[in-house]
Amino acid sequence: MCGITGYWKAGALESSAPQNLAKMTAMLYHRGPDGYGYHLDEAKGLAMGHARLSIIDLETGRQPLFARENKNVLTVNGEFYDYKRIRTNLRLEGFDFTTKSDSEIALPLYQKYGLDFVKHLRGEFAIAMYDEDEERLILVRDRFGVKPLFYHINQGNVFWGSEIKALMVHPEVPRAFDNQAVLHQLMQTMVPGTTAYKDIHALRPGHMLIIQRKGDSLDIKDHKYWDMDFPEEQDRDMGKSAEYHIRRTQEELVEAVEHRLEADVPVGCYLSGGIDSCSMLGLASSMQQSPVQAFTISFDNKDYDEAHIAKEMADRVGSNQEQINLAAGDLYGENYLKTVYHSERTFYNTLGVAKWQMSKKVNECGYRVVVTGEGSDELFGGYPQLKRDMLKYGYQNMEGSGHTQEEVDSYKELMEKSNKLFKGAILSEEHISHPVMDDICGFTPSWIQPWMNTLEIARPLLHNDILDDLKDYDPVAAIAQSFDPKQLKNRHVLDKAQYTWSKTMLECQILNWGGDRVDMANSMESRPAFLDHHVAEMAREIPPHYRIKGNTEKWVLREAMKDILPKVLYEREKFAFMSPPAHTEEKKKNALNELIEEYINEDTLRQSGLFDVGRLKRFISEYQNDKDPVSLVRKDALVNHILGLQILHRQFIEGKELSL
């Protein structure tokens, strides 16, 4: 729920601070349409804003929240689960509460545990808390980065916000692209902690920014408080049976879903044709007394549409289902522009536009909260990229795996055939490697290989000035060097693949234009139960050959959920959920071409200065005449990124549509 923003200056606030803070907070209206709250302390240089979406404690939960005679000030975006039990225990210890909000528990936990308070919070959240006695401000982001939080440091002053657009309306925050980040946008994969914009950073998941006043300046430190931390191979407990891990998966997921159904407003479920969302609906339907409202996307292309399986699941559990049917007109045009605006980054597929349409429908149906299935693939080994690494490297030591080399080879062949549709975007045609990634990980994970191929096409399209600036920059090396080597040392191949994906694509893609940003664009909160850190800490203990067993990805999860899933889904191989690319249908081609004509013409290209006009025009022409399906999938993705950068330039750098 909600949006937070603010700034802390080394000196006193500027005279226009009330107006600046009000503008910053108003930019988050879509995240919090139920009211604004402010705290300004001119002498201390502190300004804190909050835009509220009422989900828990509809009457008294306004923020900022205060404690210790207003010496501790708190704003929160997100949810803390199990808050009633925690609040009761704190009350027994003598702590007082002024609201029934889940957010308020952070204040006494901070008083009790200091900076370790975050270890006692369960949920998805971004926090700004000021401590007057310590002259300290802390910014905190949840363990997986479900909730966004960005910051900018300028001459010792710190600005922050749930979205970048909130920072950019302050006159002291610059509006410019970062050249390195532009290249990363084109290749889809960001360096953790970066954004597309110069000197605007993303607080990394599981991290805390500690800002301490030191006389007339602010001292800023980045502290990691949590990581996935897979066990080293020699320390993994291999003695527990498959049945044990199946049972533990059931126990943790039941608890995680139960917590996420807690709200003072109705809670629904997103429902695709995949195991993840179907598991969420199955569990939620068993817990709730009334039928659970489910929301499903249906595409006008049978190769990409899963709605028929989703309907079978909804019928199985007696759920009320709202199906959103999307065609070309829904995935491009104004909806595309709005999705780019809310995502604040580019995307390779219009699934983000589809998700924006979905959250809009959820809001229109009177719902503000849904439980979702994001995170399952990351924890249980669901993506074909992860399976490819497991089959290529993970069964090299066959002892105890129960699979011969001949069987593994046959699994590889089956997987490549069934995922042929997605080659060029989520799978590369052939194995490629990078020396720095090989050095740090021991191999080049399959998930980054298609984007390395895209990089080779994308880089030459940039303007010569940018190419000159980037001549010594290796984006793949930068990504590899961002990983904590201690978290990769002595880990299994599958652990490494899951870890590196989660540190990059989960946070900057799945949870961005596939999650919070397009959901909160329509004042709708999504709650991914799989990303409960108790579930994650259980899942990391599951042996790799139970996560992916032979050719069966997410084997433990399938077995844990098999009695609530339709048989067709239990037996079905993982299918990537994405929108039909533009090249698959004439109407989509035409809709995309209309955007290209408006945003990728000579005038707009010269205005942005991002691309070489001649080289880009030739690329677009080649794309429009291409007939090779794999090449088209790759170029579809790249065209979306190019188009996204041009749109972002108009919206954020020129600032022409910051009130969209």
UniProtKB/TrEMBL annotation:
Residues 2-214 form the Glutamine amidotransferase type-2 domain. This is asparagine synthase (glutamine-hydrolyzing). NCBIfam families: asn_synth_AEB. Keywords: ATP-binding, Glutamine amidotransferase, Ligase, Nucleotide-binding. Belongs to the asparagine synthetase family. GO terms for molecular function: asparagine synthase (glutamine-hydrolyzing) activity. PROSITE patterns: GATASE_TYPE_2 (PS51278). It is an enzyme of class 6 (ligase).
